[in-house]
């Protein structure tokens, strides 16, 4: 067994929770997890939020975040038990034999120090190389990871480089001491999809060249399929399935794994309509005050009744700004918005109650979209009172009916938002939009903050509602899989412009423009060898 | 109803005791406020539990009457400060624009002068009466409440549920009173406790300097002033108000902590 | 130093000067245009019409307010703070010595309290949630709950009267050696230190905790660095700006505290001078003292902002 870099047996991790106004209580975060990792291999840990995957990752450094305790089992690093090890022993391991790459490199770098200082710090403090050697190693790694001007890159401060570059620099920082094991904790989650591909390829190349073992933590099965030799699927702190990447992807044994593997595959047939559009935007430009340049320029799109337009783009493409202009929160600089044949006023004040009612909005973060001091009944009931003057039993009946439509039921009426799960909250927001009997709902990244299986449920609900109520959607997202699932037509946005627009079948088939091609190519696909194919091109 | 934690119970009990004594001072105090009943600085005895003061008045009675004045003035000034500060602060946050800028910059300007110094400047030309004291203290302190309530309300005003209400076409009253206020309440209530304590310290300091409550009326700061000469002879009468103020301050703090904790846990649902 | 930092510094200093100018207006307004007649309120209800007229003449109340303000401001700019109503002496001359004394007192309070507060803040962050932290926070909470003048008498009663370790009044004169002077002011300094320390330590603790909870501190811990070097190399450089801010904010307690403490210990400084003349309704003196106290406070805040501009890596090394 000496060639196991990391071996974990029956690990148990607990924490003390402090709910406000209640007595503290113990909660179990990880229970009975065992794994083994050989030299030079990559193990992927996958699961939704709360599955305990980051906690397990950090346990390989015998580290527990804020109040988390490693209470049971054994953790062997290079053959040594470290769960009960003393501080001095742990310090000699951390940053030397095992290193860590965090999700947000932007926060993980000290803003007051140059990158080079931070990248070589652990190497020098553990005496694994002289200062000069460490610097040469770092420059070598910068080059290997595809960072610009590797010789002088380290002279910059963290705020002077981009997010993707910081993530690469953090990888260099982890590899510089030549550790035996590196823990990657969602290293590409915060990046745009086109940036993610480059960073992922760079990480994979560097791991392979240096022959280190790695734990790769992510919620995205398609990503981990590209990089891992083995995969462990986790849920609620327990192992669901543990096997080789090929077996997990092609022959999943458990229902939960099967659901994860097939989650992105559902696609609906494209609908068309020859009725006049419910929303038409012509020649629209907009800017934020004091910015002096257009964040949107010359946008022309239309949505037919009962259909879905997906607006897809990366951060900074202007897709959310477009929603703000259409809703009247940000008056446009030029161009027109026509709704149901009539031109909408530029700002909110000039719009009639009918305009407002027929155009509803659902947000990405259901948490902040609902007043925490109002019950579900009040939240859904308010549009009914406000627009239709409903009260008493009629109001109550309609609320119950809406709750049934979103598959929650009358029991939820007196609950507060904080008592709901993420998916339930988003359903309540959908019901609130629906209560107004709108013609168009703008959905701004409504599934992005949700775990994949929950997101799938929300998409299905939206689709069913459209079939029943004939409502149109403008669906803003960065996720191509979502687009494929729900869109009838698509607008691809890049740097404030619509670069490609039309029916789904047309937009998603060649010939492509450069940007759309890159965007489509960058979306991880759930099959082995995908990254090698696209990274070669 | 959940059981209250012990520190809160102690806080409530002591705060309640102070309030009760203040309200029913005429019934509780054994002697009149300026009634001379004995010798100068008599030690504690069965008749005068805390002894007598610098001109032979019963100290326990002075403390009770003084507590009434101090607590009454502090409550009134807190109300002035709170009503002015929070109404203007919420208004500035919701209205925004140049009016908000103007109000905020004016508040910055007043806060550039330490409160006690500004109070002294103003009191040098105003007649020192209790209504004037309450107004001066309350208005100067309202700058702090303004800042807090404006900050809290602006944080809430950018939340998506407020945006959602605006998109629905709700009027300004609904936005302020139904969306923003319920969420701003708990930090504001906790702050009210802190402001009240600050007012107690403030009015005591002014009285001690001879610029607050004027004799023969009693108040805690004034009692220190009257009896301070006894200190050098080893007579601790002037230290009594310190004990009273510290006890009041700490117990109000305990209650304020509980209010903050309870209201923020309400956010987590009634049964959670 | 780059042009961006220079621009910000110039802006900040200009803002400070503007603020002092506006504060001078506020102080003037506060004493001159309040409801009621200043002369009446100075002399009381029993004043004769002649004495009222005389006082109005002396105060220049017959001249329009704007002109009065400009005269006053012009005088202040040339170092002429006016003359006292009560004793007819030049205010500038009376203040000079007293300002020195007040600064002497405040300086020693600051010299002792600032390093102590930072050290204690550090200790309570290092021992967060354990007994040293709890002890420090209980003691500082009680210190905050007692006003300065009461703290003064408590110390005076126990330390000066019962134990006899220090004088109960803080008299200074020119023949005293530095050591004698320090002994004379030991009690007022102790009170100021306790009050300022309590506030400053609590805020230092909060500021440090904020930094210690940053992700880059976790990165440093996961590099296997010793606790001391995590704090020294990673927490400290990022704590300078917040700590300087905390220190300067708390100088407000020093400015206010010094007024009260001087009165208690009969110390010949600005604070006592101000309070005496408020009681005598000597408006020119009150204006002059108020302006000086406010200016000192504004300068301290300006200094804090300048340090935090200089300590910000984003501004020192722009993209």
Strand share of the residues of chain A? Answer: 15-25%
Largest sheet of chain A: 6 strands, mixed
Structural class of chain A: alpha/beta
Strand order of the largest sheet of chain A: 6-7-8-3-9-10
Number of helices of chain A: 22
Helicity range of chain C: over 70%
* Tertiary shape of chain C: globular
- The number of strands of chain C is 0
Radius of gyration of chain C equals 24 Å
Mean pLDDT level of chain A: 88
How big a fraction of the residues of chain C is strand? Answer: under 5%
What does this structure look like?
The complex is a heterotrimer of chains A (537), B (272) and C (319). By secondary structure, chain A is an alpha/beta fold. Chain A contains 22 helices and 20 strands. Chain A has a 6-stranded mixed beta sheet with strand order 6-7-8-3-9-10, with helices on both faces. A 6-stranded mixed beta sheet of chain A has the order 16-17-18-13-19-20, sandwiched between helices. A 4-stranded antiparallel beta sheet of chain A has the order 2-1-4-5, with helices on one face. The longest helix of chain A is centred in the middle third of the chain and has 18 residues, at 193-210. The model of chain A has no long low-confidence stretch (mean pLDDT 88). In chain B, helix 1 crosses helix 3 (59-95), helix 3 (59-95) runs antiparallel to helix 4 and helix 3 packs across helix 9 (220-227). Chain B is elongated, with a radius of gyration of 22 Å. Chain B has 272 residues and is mainly α. With 319 residues, chain C is mostly helical. Chain C is 78% helix and 0% strand. Chain C is built from 14 helices and no strands. Chain C is globular. Chain A binds chain B through residues 19-22, 327-329, 348, 351, 353, 356-357, 360-361, 363, 365, 368-373, 382-383, 386, 415-416, 418-419, 432, 436, and chain B through 2, 159-161, 163-164, 166-170, 178-179, 182-183, 261-262, 264-272.
